[in-house]
Amino acid sequence: MAVRPVPETGPLVLGILYPTVWFGDAAALAEEIAAIEALDPRLEVRAVTYDEPHDLRTLRGRAGGAEVSRDLAPALTDEQREMFTAVHAVVGLDLPFDVGTIAPNLTWVQGVGAGSAQLQSAGLVDVGIRLTTSAGSNAVAIAEFVVGRVLQERKRFREMDEHQKRHQWADLYGTELAGATIGLIGLGAINAAVAARLAAFGVTVLASRRSARPGDTAPNIAELYPTDRLHEMFARCDTVISAVPETPETIGMIDATAIAAMRPGAFFVNVGRGTLLDEVALIEALRSGHLRAAALDVASEEPLPADNPLWDAPNLYLSYHCSSSPAALFVNLHRLWRDNITRWLAGDELRNEVDLRRGY
């Protein structure tokens, strides 16, 4: 399918489609719109709220989810319909189903997150609408979070806090991070930032990458593994960190067999997607002591139900898909979007473009 062309004459309408709660700072939004419109006299920016419920967004992002979620999609307001009719490019978190029909002039979507499955379910590939993600916009914040979790677990900060609450003086000694071997599942922007920070601690960093071939190298990585040797890498690692997107290949990647391949007493961290992990197998590994601990910032079901057994799993550090920094995200996202707008106008390659046939 050929991509929709960018019109040669203006005006070119750009849409900012954020959830209502993201439009809180009117002055900052006006400043951003002015900066975008200053890029080219043909540009006209419209900001209209558009968002879908979290549960619907999650369902649309899963394999087969689009087919069973259409009836749950909110009806468009007149303002939203008018905007979609006019726009040539948008930045947003969500899109309505059949967006190619609703937005006949739309040529390109800049996604807000690193993942894009829910946006792809809008039917972009069928009509040649291009899609880019914001991969890397949150890389530093998430990498800092990951290193924080690694240090928290090694230095036993949680246990120290508990003893403080009980007014108990205790000899609680941690272990050095220097000299550890840590394996990274995926080597995108997040794990590349993790590797740079771990290298400063004197850690030996291994990583897996789908395209890795013998002799390949990467900054701060001692050795690269292809994904078909992932379990071999696990056996060498004190800690395993996952930061991969959801694709057909990554769903269920960390199952009971993969966890069993990890070194006894390893620490597992997941800041990618919850669908990567067999959560039942993880809980069993924590209960048995095969894994000494785990840290999850994502879950297969979000928000996590109150009766989910993950809440009570031993030695599990849970957070709530909040390893990023919203303030940094918007600064970096809009910098990326402005750069991509310039590229889009010039007919150049867009940053972080998704191959919609492959889904990533």
Concise synopsis of the structure shown:
By secondary structure, this protein is α/β, with parallel strands linked by helices.
Describe the structure.
The chain is α/β, with parallel strands linked by helices and 360 residues long. The chain folds into two domains: 12-136 and 325-346, NAD(P)-binding Rossmann-like Domain (Rossmann fold), CATH 3.40.50.720; 139-318, NAD(P)-binding Rossmann-like Domain (Rossmann fold). The chain has helices at residues 26-37, 54-60, 65-69, 78-86, 99-102, 117-120, 124-127, 139-155, 157-165, 189-199, 230-234, 256-261, 279-288, 326-346; strands at 12-17, 43-47, 89-92, 108-111, 130-132, 181-185, 204-208, 223-225, 239-242, 266-270, 291-296, 316-318. The strands form two sheets. Strands 8-7-6-9-10-11-12 form a seven-stranded parallel β-sheet. Strands 2-1-3-4-5 form a five-stranded parallel β-sheet, with helices on both faces. α10 (189-199) links the parallel β6 (181-185) and β7. α8 (139-155) crosses α10. The longest helix has 21 residues, at 326-346. It is elongated. The two termini are 17 Å apart. 38% of the residues are buried. The model has no long low-confidence stretch (mean pLDDT 94).
